[in-house]
Task: structure prediction
Amino acid sequence: MSYLLKCQGCSVTSSDYLNFPSVIARATTVNSDVILSEEAIETICGPSADDRDFISTTFEGLYFTEQDRRFLDSAWSHIDRLEGAEKDLAISALVLSAARRQPRGVFTFTDANRYVDGRRDLELSLRRHFRERAAEYNAVVFDNGRVSRASQGEVFEIDAGPYDLVYLDPPYAPPSDDNDYIKRYHFLEGLSNYWRGSTIMENTKTKKLAKRFTPFAYKRTIEDALQRTFERFASSGTIVLSYSSNAVPDAARILELLKRVKDDVEVREVDHKYSFGTHGAATRRNVKEYLFIGRSA
Ligand SMILES: C[S@@+](CC[C@H](N)C(=O)[O-])C[C@H]1O[C@@H](n2cnc3c(N)ncnc32)[C@H](O)[C@@H]1O
Result:
């Protein structure tokens, strides 16, 4: 979304409480002129600069091939020597490589072979992925003539604006369980800073990172979180919220909350089919994706 708005000529302020989305926003939306040089790509894909093996040993037998895991360590031995937008582009390409190489892009299971179905993304080595993904990231860098910003942090801590438009895309709080992004994307989050300052829960099969609380993930805290977010950006021109009928609270309640800060609220609905699994037995669920658009009079 940040990049789309940049393409539409906006000055964008992006924020997410995970590190990897923030790095990607910096590489693509804040960065206007730096690309990852051919030389840097060659170096990252070449021999390691040191003998680090954290990823190879920590995730042995869990994710990717041994050669792939060694590549991730080796790539980081060079990425550690980069700075600024070059470093952001290299990390973004590495994170996207790992996401594409892992079935469904999530790290909630370790028996990836179960999902191998001949798809090219699952066949390519991570080194080969990296070359391709780095070229793709380089290709999207451009200057729209405006300054953009990106930060990592709680939505309640970012500059309250006012902005012309606030686009909110929080996790959808499910009626049962929670919607914990770290559970699914812990490997990408760890990879985005080489697990520095992160605590791996050693007793978990997937070696996931410790959960970080967010009120958007739970049915008990979501309403208050939405209300506080709407209030925070009440003085901005338009608030747009993306949400799902698959989650709580329901559309009527969200409408009520948004109407407390915006005079005119429109709801757009799009039918959406979620697929779980890749085979004939895969389950599908029909839901509605909502866009709530709140404007001031
Ligand atoms: C549906 S995803 C949004 C993805 C994003 N729009 C994109 O297209 O990449 C929800 C995001 O909310 C982030 N998040 C969860 N709780 C948050 C909080 N309290 N403050 C800021 N971001 C939060 C998650 O890390 C996750 O990336």
